[in-house]
Amino acid sequence: MKEYIEKFQQKINVNKNSRKKRTNAKNTEDSLFRKLFPQQESGQSRDSYMRQNLMLSVKYGALALATLAVLRGGYTVVSENVATSSSVNGRELPIYCVETDEKKIALSFDAAWGNEDTAKILEILAKQDVKVTFFMTGGWVESYPDDVKAILAAGHDLGNHSENHKNMSQLSDAEKKEELMKVHEKVRELTGYEMFLFRPPYGDYDNAVVNVAKDCGYYTIQWDVDSLDWKDYGVDSIIKTVTEHKHLGNGSIILCHNGAKYTAQALDMLIAKLKNEGYTFVPISELIYKDKYHINHEGRQIKN
What we know:
Blueprint: H1 2-36, H2 46-83, E1 84-85, E2 87-88, E3 91-92, E4 97-98, E5 104-111, H3 118-128, E6 133-136, H4 138-143, H5 145-153, E7 157-160, H6 173-191, E8 197-198, H7 207-215, E9 219-220, E10 225-226, H8 235-243, E11 253-257, H9 263-276, E12 280-281, H10 284-287, E13 293-295, E14 300-303
Parallel strand pairs: 1-13, 4-14, 5-6, 5-11, 5-12, 6-7, 8-9, 10-11
Antiparallel strand pairs: 2-3, 13-14
Helix pairs in contact: 3-9, 6-7, 8-9
């Protein structure tokens, strides 16, 4: 009986506390309401008082909607920037390399002049079962359409290297777009392929170059390992420069040129040596992240 009485008293106390909380909450609500909607003044007509409250309701409603719009706008901007951000401290950066736990790298060839070794390069790549990315100028596409088709047929990426190999940062936005889209249309008409990887000639870019390329549907691609094959130092120099490069690692993008003097001669040995070091090769289209990424100050693309 004693236990029953104690439980009954506890229940009464809980109910009292609950009523007290509800009363306090109601008092708080009433106090807030009075602050927002003052009481009817002495001598003020009921119609005047109602119009006053109506105007206050409209005012507070508009303020609430404006606040919500600002919050939503801020959230949208942040979400978009986090989803795909290439901006670092106000600077738009291309992709130089990719953060990945996998020991995979990408070979790339800029094709702006010469064609003597393209067939040999494709033959070596087929033998080594390696897929790469070729960045081509409009002039090269026009001069060697059969090679463009052969590159695509072999399973390699076709990339955009601009129409005329100009310094893109020195052009107007309209001219930048024209440099991108002229060669884009040539490749599409020739092969049906829609290119989406862009490498600026000379590696020259600024914020506008990256943004215009993005507007045209392109990821701007640089490199973190330069083979220096264009300096014509010889086969051993190319191999040593790449394999001993301080930046070589998971997610690296290697720059070569199909028209350089010793590149084709060095290629087979270079690939073999990198394979022996445990690297696998993928085209840039398979190395980079297409969305939900950001880029750090080194130009390293990082998955969010």
